[in-house]
Design brief:
The complex is a heterodimer of chains A (146) and B (138).
Chain A lengths: L10 E6 L24 E5 L8 H15 L7 E6 H10 L7 E4 L10 E5 L6 H9 L3 E4 L7
Antiparallel strand pairs in A: 1-2, 1-3, 2-5, 3-6, 4-5
Chain B lengths: L5 H10 L5 H19 L5 H14 L6 E4 L5 E6 L5 E8 L2 E9 L7 E9 L3 H5 L5 H4 L2
Antiparallel strand pairs in B: 1-2, 2-3, 3-4, 4-5
Helix pairs in contact in B: 1-3
The chains are: A alpha+beta (146), B alpha+beta (138).
Chain lengths: 146, 138
């Protein structure tokens, strides 16, 4: 349901452009900075697709993203645990409440599209915390498109 | 002298006396390509000029991490062994933001964050109260 808060047990991925990826392959905090005109930080809900089949989930997200925009050669998908994002409000910065909500898009279809609400473009402390919560990093381009 | 294009700013960096210059130039060229892929623009020339002046004046001995901000600025990070981290965002137009992260001495699970917005040419002065360069630049 659009706007529903994702469960803490879920995982999401954030598309991180190559200009926000450090040379060692880790993700810089600026990858979690929303633009001034964005109400939330766009992510994709992995568990929306084929529960427990991670490669299929990643493939589905890649297909959805590639249908919407050009994906850079070094772009990455950074996986984070939703529960750890929700916990940022209580353990990191007492003045911030982060919430991950389902925000499916119809055209082009991106049914797993979701958003992290509560981030501010100039709040680098939160961006730093989100970068530190990255569990896993995948190439954002499918093998066929590389 | 202000560089009015990214290429001119890169040319100026090539002429500057900056530690690890060859690697720095290679990284910045790569970042310019990646930033264009991501946003269809080139990085801010004035941000690169500010970064060049800072690196030339600071003469830090070690190469460090550089990435981009979504609006074309440069984000430079230094991580010390004591889990202390300093980051500088070169925003362009002579403006820089400084961030210092360090574990809270009484609550190690928390990070204390110190921030400051200043002019790029005053960064070393802004950093002085925390003196992170002693540990980070050694």
């Amino acid at each position: 349901m659009k706007g529903a808060v994702l469960p803490n047990s879920a995982s999401i991925v954030r598309l991180c452009g190559g200009s926000h990826v450090r040379e060692d392959g880790t993700i810089a905090p600026t990858a979690f900075r929303a633009r001034e005109d964005e109400n939330y930080l766009s992510v994709n809900w992995l568990d929306f697709f084929a529960p427990s089949d991670r490669p299929a989930q990643i493939a589905a997200v890649r297909r959805a993203l590639e249908s919407k925009r050009n994906i850079g050669s070094k772009a990455r998908l950074a996986r984070l645990h939703v529960g750890s994002i929700h916990a940022v409000s209580s353990s990191g910065n007492a003045f911030v409440t982060l919430e991950v909500r389902h925000e499916p898009e119809a055209l082009p279809p991106d049914p797993s599209h979701s958003g992290i609400y509560g981030t501010q473009p100039d709040d680098l402390a939160v961006q730093e915390r989100l970068a530190n919560l990255v569990n896993e990093v995948f190439s954002a381009k499918s093998a066929a498109s590389q | 002298m202000m560089a009015n294009s990214f290429k001119a700013a890169m040319d100026r960096l090539e002429q500057a006396s900056v530690p690890c210059k060859a690697r720095l130039l290679e990284r910045l060229r790569d970042l310019a390509v990646l930033f264009h892929e991501d946003y269809g623009n080139e990085p801010k020339a004035s941000a690169l000029s500010d970064l060049t002046e800072f690196f030339a004046s600071a003469q830090l001995k070690h190469y460090t991490s550089i990435t981009m901000t979504p609006d074309g600025g440069f984000y430079v990070e230094w991580q010390s062994e004591a889990q202390q981290k300093v980051a500088v965002e070169f925003m362009g137009g002579g403006v820089a933001r400084l961030f210092s992260f360090r574990p809270n001495p009484r609550h190690p699970e928390r990070s204390d964050v110190f921030t400051c917005t200043t002019t790029a040419d005053a960064l070393m002065d802004a950093l002085a109260p925390w003196n992170p360069w002693k540990a980070l630049a050694a």
